[in-house]
Amino acid sequence: MHHFHIAYFRQGVALQYLGRHADALAAFASGLAQDPKSLQLLVGMVEAAMKSPLRDSIEPTYQKLQKMKLDKSPFVVVSVIGQELVSHGSYGASVVVLESGLKIGTCSLKLRGSVFSALSSAYWSLGNSEKSVAYMQQDLEVAKTLGDQCGECRVHGNLGSAFYSKGNYREALTNHRNQLVLAMRLKDREAASGALSSLGHVYTSIGDYPNALASHKQCVLLARQSQCRLSEARQLGNVGAVYTALGDFANALKCHEQHLEVAKTLGNRREEARAYSNLGSAYHSQRDFDKAVSYHTRVLELAQELEERAFEMRAYAGLGHAARCMQDLARAGGYHQNQLDIAQELEDRPAQGRASSNLGIIQQMRGEYDTALELHKTHLALAQELGDYAAQGRAYGNMGNAYNALGHHDQAVRYHRQELQISLEVNDRPSQASTHGNLAVAYQALGAHDQALQHYLHHLSIARDLGDTQSEARALANLGNFHSGRGEYAQALPYYQQYLALSPGLQDLETAGKIFHNQGYAYYCLGQYRDAIRCYEQDLGLAKDLQDKLAQAKAYCNLGLAHKALGEYSKAEECQRYLLSLAQALDNTQAAFRALGNLGDVCVCRGDLPAATRFYQQQLKLAQKHKNQKMEADAYSALGSSHRLQRQMESALSFHSQELTLRRDLCDQQGECQALGHLAAVHMTLGDYATTLQCYEAQLVLAQGLRDARLEARVHGNMGITKLNMGLFEEAIGYFEQQLAMLQQLSGAEGVLDRGRAFGSLADCYDALGDFEEAIQYYEKYLSVAQSLVHIQDQEKAYRGLGNAHRSMGNLQQALVCFEKRLVVAHELGGDGGGKAHAYGELGTLHSQLGNYEQALSCLEHQLNIAHTAGDQSLAGEASGSLGGVYQLMGDNETALQWHQRALDIAEQIGCGRGQGRAYGDLGLTYEALGNFERAVFYQEQHLSVAAQTNDLPAKTLAYGSLGRTHHALQNFAQAVMYLQEGLRLAEQLGRREDEAKVRHHLGLSLWASGNLEDAQHQLYRASLLFETIRHETQPSAENKIRLLDLQTSTYQALQRVLVSLGRHDEALAIAERGRPRAFVDLLMEHQKGGEQAVTSDLYTPVSVEHMLEVVSRQRAEVLYYSLAGGFLYSWLLSPGKGIIKFHQVYLGESGGERSEFHEGGASTVGGGVNGSGQSLEQYISNAREALGVDSHYSRSTQSSVPSTTASPVRERRAVNRSPLRALYDLLIGPMEMGLMSSASSVGRHRELVLVLEGELFLIPFALLKGSSSNEYLYERFSLISVPALSGLGASVKVGRRQPCSICRL
Fold it and tell me: Is-contact 1184 1220, C-beta < 8 A?
């Protein structure tokens, strides 16, 4: 033992000579711990203390110990010297000395308690909180054992502060509450004030601001009662800090200014610095960073004057925070580095952790995530070393944010979960709220949207429970952005609105502007453009208040896009020009590039494509000047699109090819996908569907490589559209069904919207297939999706599709309802153009179909007014053309010409090739209707020229058809045939069956007129088959059905005449049967539905002579078959077993004073041997009805136009010489008399005669006809059966047998 104490003694002496007095004292104390009885060590320790810097403070105490005869007590001497070492900041040595004292030991609990207290302070100062707290708890036990309430109160205060610093707020609250109870029991005002102040800090940390405010206010009252101005000043600062946290800036400012005033009155520079620091924090919370910087700078100046490094460190922290919020990251980094340097100099481990955390956040904002992570790990290590649980939670949170920014979202979730666990354990509710927000961001990035949403909602709930408006606002903004990011714009809007309701109290104009921007974007995506404009205008106003030119530029950009969507192109252009001006002032290339592109887009919407191209060319020059390949690719994309719209396909292909090359050079696979899509669009416009599909297949491979299911689904949709354009509707449906199947796997509103649009595409397919019922079902699904998402634009498209499908089915009233709803929706979209104008246009067209010409004109005039208001010349041209079309239908061709001329003028003015072509065509049709065929030819030639320039094949088809008709009317039959043959080639190429049928019809007439009967009959026959197919396989509207029926009937009549001219009377009979009025057959089929399917299916079976003769043989009756064809009456007598006995034809002239469509064939094409009656069928019937005393509309019209006093003498003689009924007999029965007699097998009523009649022939009283050589009326000779077609004989025979004498009921 002696050996040990000598070693410690010598060590102590050596250290003393080296000037290491504290370490020398620790050596002596360590020796005494080994040998408490060593007087040498005790004396050496006292001498060393007297020779150390401790002498001034320890000498008086030692003298007292001498008087008390305690100077020879090793425990007392060691404990006194240890506590003095603590007072002088020699914490390492003090710990050794004091713990040596405990080893020496004492029976005095009070003395031991003082050592425990000193040790807790020393370890706390060394940053060893665990040992510090352990000694505090031993100190507390001693105080309780001694009944020392003062000591107990003191220790509870120390424990509370220790737990608070570690972030263990639950234990902190418990100890400070105990401290307060004991202080009040002891009536110790100072201790009570300390307890209340500490409680206030804990309440603030857990977000319990009402209790925090109450605690600090009580401190202020206690300070005033004790007239302690310094305490009052500090407590005012604490009250102000709580008001700052509550967002009550006015009261916070008032408190901090009072704090400053008291500090200045006291001349306390340190307190003055604290007040300035608090004022800086208050202004920082209001985002008035300039003022915050000025106050923190004042703190820095005072700290440097006072040489207070701790205050200087605090000032650097405040300055760093302000610079960070001002986005001055370089300066912020410098300030926080100074903060760290001072913390290291002071060996202040908690401060080092905070500074490392701040520097980590700056590095993260710079994108230096690895450096940020290292700094956050340093913070975490320090927090773990200090046992600071709350700081560990903050470090985990910052690490989670860094990993999230790096894209390591799994790691981010792991760290944020640790952060959340700590905040739950320490009951740090504000931290819990922010951690839920951080977890939500990480889960959202992982695609775990349900979990993300739950955490966002937890954040909001906790923030509201705490009454933390700032945190609540952040949660609301995050929830809005979450839903908006998923395309759930309707769900996002309430959160943005709630944020903006809180906004006035937040005093955060910058964030309010961002929320207005996001809210505007949500409205924009929902198609609610007027609401979007309102939000963007608020955003712009705030940006102007903040003098933030970049924010103003963004707001102008968005405002312009919303105005463009409404068709308000002048306002849109104005906004984009403001954007361009600001971009140039800011020297912001990206913004200038965007402005030029947006200006080009406005010109495209106006139809001013040359102007659009000029803006896109400026974009390209700007991109090339700055050598920005991405912008260059975007410019090529825009140029390609504008040239495609101008039908300049070679240029469009060139630009999009350059775009594709650049995207590949940039390794931009998303951009490469877009470029392939653009190339596909050009090839599709060119009709090169094979190359189009190749582009989409390449795009599909890229989409699959990117694992972008949404893009992949869209490519399938585009491939479906390609097949749709190719007329391969079944294949198109397959692609759209694949698209739907892929979209089913996607979540979020955008996936739902894409599904809705896929339903719309399927509807388009079925519409094209003529399956309008199926189309309507899919349009209704599309509408349902659009309504569920409150997506107005898609509702408008769905109503349009529904309206067109109903119109195609002939449900014009239902179509009218759909188009009216579309108009309502278009009004909801707002604006003075776009959808509303087109809705008026389609509604007007439908009214014209319904014959509601006044309503049609009203709608189209609305469309025109909207076009003028919006400055949309293209739309004005479209409306003018439609108005001309309505006036043409009304027969007012002169007014129609004026409107079509106006449409042409507008199209020429804006350089719209398609518009010019359409107007030329309309003018040609109007002049054709006026009979001015030379002018019609001129305009149709212009129409054809424009169509050729723009490669508009459908327009070329129509132009060729019109030129063929007009040249035919001018009797230029060779030219007519040439044009019609070209039209036929294009119609076949495009698969336009109705156009093909019409062209074949007119080509047949022209070939007939030029004497080419064989080719004429071929074309007319093909036309008749096509008309029949179209009527059977599609569901045309009632109006279109009638129009097609008229054309079909005309074709059949022309074909009969050609066949008769060729002497092929039997074939002419078959065509006559096929050409019977189909409306009758349609009606018969409708009546027979579900009953006699075999019969109904036979009604449309192709007719042959053999089939007709079989029907006659089964009937066992003679058949007189009549057919009226262009002024000719054809009749055939058919007998059972004998076939066609006789054919007869007679020319009666044009009926009803109307000009036949094929008059140009004339009698000259029929050949000789044709009887002419010299009297029209109308006159025959009128005379017969008058003779019978039956009122006749024929006789009324004759009498009103020709007075009886001027009646023709020829007619008078005819009436005298031959009765009207006898004349009808001679016309209709006489030519067949010999045949009827020779085929007679029986006489009387048992012999049947079937009359196959059409048109006016049904008005003839056949039963009352008799010839000059017979005294019997026809009904006495035959049992008469009248039918409209031989194919309907089976159904009519039964009726005939119930009423044997089918005498006409006149």
Answer: yes
If one counts every other C-beta atom within 10 angstroms of the C-beta of residue 1110, the result is: 12
Segments in 346-368 forming alpha helices (H): 349-365
Which CA distances in Å does 990 have to 451, 722, 852? 53, 14, 33
The model carries a pTM of: 0.56
Q: DSSP string of 1109-1140?
A: HHHHHHHTSEEEEEEEETTEEEEEEEETTTEE
Residues 175/177/181/184 CA torsion (nearest 10 deg) = 110
Do 580 and 592 touch, CB atoms closer than 8 A?
yes
Closest to 680 (Cα-Cα) out of 713, 619, 725, 710: 725
1-147 and 508-605 have identical folds: yes
Rounded-to-10 torsion of CA 908, 911, 915, 919: 20
Structure confidence at residue 395 as a pLDDT band (50, 70, 90): very high
What is the C-alpha separation between 806 and 762, in angstroms, rounded?
Answer: 16
3-state secondary structure 159-186: HHHHHHHCCCHHHHHHHHHHHHHHHHHH
Going by pLDDT thresholds of 50, 70 and 90, the confidence category of residue 1292 is very low
Instruction: Report CA-CA distances (Å) from 403 to 373, 391, 455.
Output: 8, 18, 18
Q: What is the mean pLDDT of residues 1146-1160?
A: 54
Are 1262 and 1304 spatial neighbours (Cβ–Cβ below 8 Å)? Answer: yes
- Alpha-carbon distances, residue 50 vs 24, 82, 418, 469 (angstroms): 12, 14, 53, 60
Q: 409-425 and 429-445 are packed helices; what angle lies between their axes, rounded to 10 degrees?
A: 160
8 A C-beta contact, residue 1030 and residue 988:
no
Dist CA 107 CA 117 (whole Å): 17
Distance, CA of 1092 to CA of 1012 (rounded, Å): 44
Three-state DSSP at 771 gives: coil
Residue 1244 near residue 1212, CB atoms below 8 Å: no
Question: Crossing angle of helices 749-768/489-506, nearest 10°?
Answer: 140
Find residue 1145's DSSP bridge partners: 1130
pLDDT digits (tens, 9 = 90+) for 896-953: 999 999 999 988 888 888 888 899 999 999 999 999 999 999 999 999 998 888 888 8
The domain ranges of the chain are 1-147, 508-605
Query: Which amino acid is located at 1125 in the chain?
Result: A
pLDDT tens by residue, 818-875? 888 888 888 876 655 567 888 888 889 888 888 888 998 998 998 888 888 877 788 8
Reduced 3-state DSSP string for 894-959 = HHHHHHHHHHHHHHHHHCCHHHHHHHHHHHHHHHHHCCCHHHHHHHHHHHHHHHHHCCCHHHHHHH
Contacts with 972 (C-beta within 8 Å, 6 or more apart), sequence order:
none
Among 510, 512, 507, smallest CA distance to 496 is for 512
Q: How many angstroms separate the CA atoms of 195 and 216, rounded?
A: 10
- Single-letter residue type at 481: N
Instruction: Establish how many alpha carbons lie within 13 A of residue 753's alpha carbon, considering only the half-sphere containing its beta carbon.
Output: 19
Task: For residue 970, give every residue at least 6 positions away whose Cβ sits within 8 Å of its Cβ, in sequence order, or none.
Answer: 933, 934, 937
HSE of 377, CA atoms in CB hemisphere, 13 A: 7
Q: Phi and psi for 964 in degrees, rounded to 5?
A: -60, -45
Cα-based angle 189, 194, 196 (whole degrees, multiple of 5): 90
β-sheet with 1171-1172: strand ranges across: 1171-1172, 1139-1147, 1128-1135, 1118-1125, 1248-1252, 1279-1283
Topology (CATH) of 508-605: 1.25.40
Beta strands at 1171-1172 and 1139-1147: parallel, antiparallel or unpaired: parallel
> What is the topology classification, in CATH, of domain 1-147?
1.25.40
Contact 676, 684 (CB under 8 A): no
